[in-house]
Automatic annotation (TrEMBL):
Transmembrane segments: none annotated. PROSITE patterns: NUDIX, NUDIX_BOX. The lineage of its organism: Bacteria, Pseudomonadati, Pseudomonadota, Betaproteobacteria, Nitrosomonadales. It is an enzyme of class 3 (hydrolase). It catalyses: 8-oxo-dGTP + H2O = 8-oxo-dGMP + diphosphate + H(+); 8-oxo-GTP + H2O = 8-oxo-GMP + diphosphate + H(+). One of its GO terms (molecular function) is 8-oxo-dGDP phosphatase activity. This is 8-oxo-dGTP diphosphatase. Its cofactor is Mg(2+). Residues 5-134 form the Nudix hydrolase domain. Its EC number is 3.6.1.55. It comes from Nitrosospira briensis.
Length: 316
């Protein structure tokens, strides 16, 4: 078995078109796992910066010049021939048309409708992560009233919102159930997913209301012995220990907060963007930034390695 000193560093690219499709390459004969599909990229030379390796590999393999790319997740995987650390970047701007300069096949695919197989084993969690949208909305119906909140959510869904967390500690169980059913109905008509907060409901509540998963507060996250048997699991984190636990349990994503000052926790210490980036560097699961953010902060989150942003008061 490969030892840590034998880990092969790889810069991997999720080359994404404006319509959301990303590029996959089929490994040619003569390489390990011939015929398998993977994300373009290649080995990092000793002492070479990751972004330099990414640009070099994509120019050699595909003939494109990367103009804009954001750091994303890092996955460690052990194959029979090597242990690789896949450092993923999301490439959103490039010059040139991709061509298969190393005898590989190329195909544009969508995360929710992969039409090529087989995929390299390391890529299954990556494809699932790519199915997560960039904005995660958190309800605040206790402050705004359920009627106003539902109207805001419906408007946001029409504008493309695809992930909602129901977090309503102040509601009675009966009111919460009715509100959740209404949100799930609205969301599912738009192809969006709904998670209920761990304080808000348990797995039975999730299933009874038709919700797609559970979002665990940090205290519950640290008490979990294993990932629950539910389709989607998210977790709130505030430090490296909680992020590590979310990774260990195989959460689909984490939310790290607070990044900036927020109305819900006035006077609380904030991470700031630099500490946010440092905490999630090499994280194996997508991480949303939360705390005092608006839609205009999305690119800033991407630049610092975040998957996207989570907002409570920015639903519109």
């Amino acid at each position: 078995m490969s030892q840590p000193s034998d880990i092969v560093e790889v810069a991997a690219a999720v080359i994404t078109r404006p319509d959301g499709a990303f590029l996959l390459a089929r490994r040619p004969k003569g390489k390990p796992y011939p015929g398998y599909w993977e994300f373009p990229g290649g080995k990092v030379n000793p002492g070479e910066p990751l972004f330099h390796a990414l640009r070099r590999e994509l120019q050699e393999e595909l003939g494109i010049h990367v103009e804009q790319a954001y750091p994303w997740i890092t996955r460690l995987f052990t194959y029979t021939h090597a242990t690789v650390r896949l450092c993923f970047y999301r490439v959103v701007a490039w010059r040139g048309d991709p061509h298969p300069y190393e005898n590989q096949e190329l195909s544009w695919q969508f995360a929710n409708n992969i039409r090529v197989e087989p995929m390299l084993p390391a890529n299954a969690p990556v494809l699932r992560a790519l199915d997560l949208p960039p904005v995660y909305a958190i309800t605040n119906a206790t402050e705004w009233s359920p009627e106003v909140s539902l109207a805001q959510i419906e408007c946001a869904l029409q504008k493309g919102l695809r992930l909602v967390q129901i977090r309503e500690k102040g509601m009675t169980k009966e009111a919460l159930r009715a509100f959740t059913v209404d949100v799930v109905s609205l969301a599912h008509r738009s192809g969006a997913r709904v998670l209920v907060n761990g304080y808000t409901g348990n797995l039975d509540f999730c299933r009874e209301t038709g919700a797609d998963g559970v979002h665990f507060p940090a205290t519950q996250l640290m008490d979990l012995a294993k990932r629950p048997a539910i389709a989607w699991c998210g977790a709130s984190c505030h430090n490296s220990e909680e992020l590590f636990r979310a990774e260990q349990l195989g959460m689909d994503f984490a939310v790290l907060a607070p990044v900036l000052p927020t109305l819900s926790h006035p006077g609380s210490a904030t991470l700031g963007w630099q500490k946010f980036a440092a905490l999630i560097r090499n994280c194996s699961i997508p991480v949303y930034a939360l705390g005092g953010l608006h839609r205009g902060d999305l690119i800033t989150a991407w630049e610092h390695g975040g998957h996207g942003i989570a907002m409570m008061r920015g639903i519109d």
